[in-house]
Design a protein that fits this description.
Number of helices: 16
Order of helices and strands: HHHHHHHHHHHEEEEEHEEHEHEHEHE
Strand content: 5-15%
Helix content: 40-55%
Oligomer: single chain
Strand order of the largest sheet: 9-8-7-10-11
Largest sheet: 5 strands, parallel
Distance between the termini: 40 Å
């Protein structure tokens, strides 16, 4: 059975709603960027109004102290961004999406850390030169004699530990649950360092207006964290009453969990989005795990599908019917709101296929206008095979499975069986009129980077490529 082609008023209505959603997304993006630039300009204004430029150009110990002020201000501002970006504030979620926010969080984190260390070094050198004492003595005096510096030192040590554990090589050796728990210590590090900034920082106390600004923005950051990471998820979970109905094996190493709840349509979940899930099934329930919905959202049902790769996913296989679930979300920008074309090319690897299947169930398209490419190590490992077959039979989706061990030739996203195909050529074969397609990618970051490189080779516009990473 096939679905009739969208024509006439139905097609115009679909195009109009898609265009309106895209305009709303562009507006949110502009607001988010403006908010970041505005606070950045405030930081520069504080430093300049305090004579930062003149003092820096004069040289000597005062120049070191002035530069320490600048690095401290920028570091504090980036630290503020870090807290706000991961507080799930709707402004930034709608402006950038989870995938971009995660990259921004990592980038601002490392820059904030290095500028923070530069601030410490410059302060010690500047003060030591002014007082005519050695660096070690000046460091000791700063720690013991200045208000809040003992707390700041403890916070610095915590932040150093979090940064070391966030280096990719160290992070890959840790279980996700352990890494996530240790990463939460960054909040404690920020909390310990903050009093020093607000009690003794010259630029934080330069004027009543500056003091009001800094206390306000940090209070807003703390409030957003409590509201959007704690209070709102608890309220939504209590209201929705989500419980597990059944769990089924999916593929050779996958699992699908079906849940029901009370008027879940009030969550306004869109296909392609994800939640942070906490299953109240015993010890360890507090560790949240991100999983996309794997079928289009319904008013009374949510479904997730995952690959069994660690303790968190292994626990999914042991869930019992009736298990209560805490939800945090929905999040993510891998939705149909950003569509610009009439056709769809979906490329997913492993569990990354889940949100793409949900999107294909939800989005409008005519038979033959959607292609789903799935990548698995073996055919038996593929998830959601039954849902994909229904899409092929009822919606006219073209399914192209790419199974087998990966190749190390020009396009590592392809299996060895297809290594004679240049990646760009295969994409052209799958979507000859590529200009009419929106391309959705979901899977491990390295795999998506390989696909993205071939799309860039084909000069596909960035506005036509939509992606979400499934790595930590």
């Amino acid at each position: 059975m096939s679905t009739p082609r969208l024509t006439g008023s139905r097609a115009r209505s679909s195009a109009s709603s898609t265009g309106a959603a895209r305009r709303r997304a562009d507006a949110w993006h502009a607001i988010g960027v403006s908010a970041i630039w505005l606070t950045s300009l405030v930081i520069v204004a504080l430093w300049v109004s305090g004579g930062g430029i003149q003092t820096s150009l004069a040289g000597g110990p005062d120049a070191l102290t002035s530069l320490s002020r600048l690095t401290g201000l920028v570091s504090a501002n980036l630290l503020l961004y870090q807290v706000l970006l991961m507080a799930r504030v709707p402004l930034f979620e709608r402006a950038f999406g989870h995938d971009v926010i995660t990259r921004m969080h990592r980038l601002t984190g490392f820059w904030s850390f290095w500028l923070f260390l530069a601030h410490i070094v410059l302060v010690v050198l500047g003060y030591a030169d002014t007082a005519g004492v050695d660096v070690i003595r000046q460091t000791w005096e700063l720690i013991w004699d200045y208000p809040g510096m003992l707390l700041a030192t403890a916070g610095t040590l915590l932040l150093v530990g979090v940064v070391i554990l966030s280096i990719r090589r160290a992070r890959r050796k840790m279980r996700y649950e352990s890494w996530h728990l240790l990463h939460l210590y960054s909040y404690l590090g920020v909390g310990l360092a903050l009093p020093h900034q607000l009690w003794t920082g010259a630029d934080f106390l330069a004027s009543p207006l500056a003091t009001f600004y800094w206390w306000t923005v940090w209070a807003v950051a703390a409030g957003c964290t409590l509201i959007y990471r704690v209070a709102l998820p608890l309220a939504r979970s209590t209201r929705s009453q989500v419980t597990v109905t059944h769990v089924v094996a999916d593929g050779s190493d996958g699992v699908t969990v079906v849940m029901t709840g009370n008027r879940l349509n009030r969550l306004r979940t869109k296909a392609g989005q994800f939640f942070i899930w906490r299953f109240l099934d015993g010890p360890g329930w507090s560790r949240g795990h991100p999983f996309s919905v794997s079928t289009r959202p319904y008013a009374d049902r949510l479904t997730i599908t995952a690959k069994i790769t660690g303790d968190g996913t292994q626990r999914l296989t042991e869930l019992k019917a009736g298990t209560r679930v805490l939800i945090e979300g929905p999040y993510g920008h891998l939705t149909g709101d950003r569509r610009r074309g009439t056709k769809l090319l979906m490329l997913g690897a492993g569990a990354g296929v889940a949100p793409l299947v949900a999107l294909l169930q939800e989005q409008p398209y005519a038979p033959g206008e959607a292609t789903l490419v799935t990548r698995d190590s073996t055919a038996e490992a593929a998830v959601l095979s039954r849902a994909i077959r229904r899409l092929v039979e009822k919606r006219g989706v073209r399914h192209v499975p790419l199974n087998g061990p990966r190749t190390r030739i020009s396009s590592p996203w392809l299996p060895r069986e297809y290594e004679q195909w240049p990646g760009p050529q295969l994409i052209r074969h799958l979507a000859p009129d590529l200009v009419n397609y929106d391309i959705y990618l979901c899977g491990p970051t390295r795999w998506m980077d390989s696909v993205r490189a071939d799309l860039d080779h084909l000069r596909v516009a960035g506005t036509r490529i939509h992606l979400e990473a499934f790595d930590i």
